[in-house]
Write a structure and sequence with these properties.
mainly alpha
Length: 198
């Protein structure tokens, strides 16, 4: 018998609201004045928190821009671990990364990524996150009991998948870029061995 997870308590809700308020204030100021023109103390004042409180939620100024990064990583891992029985791990990643690319190339997200790409600090931070996601994804693929995947194959596919996300997000034709990238990823997955999936 399974039990539904308990809803977050008052303290957790308050922490989440504070975190969200800080991130919202930071992004609003970054959009209005530019990333490089806004200081940490100004963000804390705008969010009505102490600087120490801001750093308790975000380890750096760059992290404020990537407030939803944890959700990104969780979605990639869930694409592998929660895929339907018999579904290809590459197809599952293709579908999830396609959804992520669509989100990042529409609406308010386009301005956010434009700001990231115009800032050397934010671009570097994005690359660090991409590598972190690739490592987490590789570990998930390698640990999957339904797969017979070497560490090298798992790492290669994970890095290819993250590269496909970045290439598609930056492309003038994201969908075509993603399709072409995943055709090559599928070929690499097939080349990794005769029986990658049980």
């Amino acid at each position: 018998m399974t039990h539904d997870p308990q809803p977050p308590g008052r303290r957790e809700r308050k922490k989440a609201a504070t975190r969200r308020g800080i991130a919202d204030a930071a992004l609003r100021m970054f959009r209005e004045r530019g990333y490089g023109s806004v200081g940490i103390r100004e963000i804390a004042a705008e969010a009505d928190v102490a600087v120490t409180t801001l750093f308790a939620h975000f380890p750096s100024k760059e992290a404020l821009v990537f407030e939803q990064a944890a959700g990104f990583e969780a979605r990639l891992i869930a694409a592998v671990t929660e895929r339907p029985e018999g579904a290809s791990v590459v197809c599952a990643l293709h579908e999830e990364i396609g959804a992520l690319v669509q989100h990042c190339t529409t609406g308010d997200a386009t301005g956010l990524w434009r700001m990231i790409e115009q800032s050397p600090e934010l671009s570097t931070y994005a690359q660090v996150l991409e590598l972190r996601y690739a490592r987490a994804l590789a570990a998930t693929i390698h640990a999957d009991p339904a797969l017979t995947t070497s560490e090298v194959a798992s790492t290669t596919i994970a890095r290819f998948a993250m590269a496909a996300f970045t290439l598609a997000r930056q492309s003038a034709d994201p969908q075509a870029t993603l399709e072409e990238s995943f055709r090559m990823i599928e070929a690499a997955w097939a080349a990794a061995g005769p029986s990658r999936e049980k």
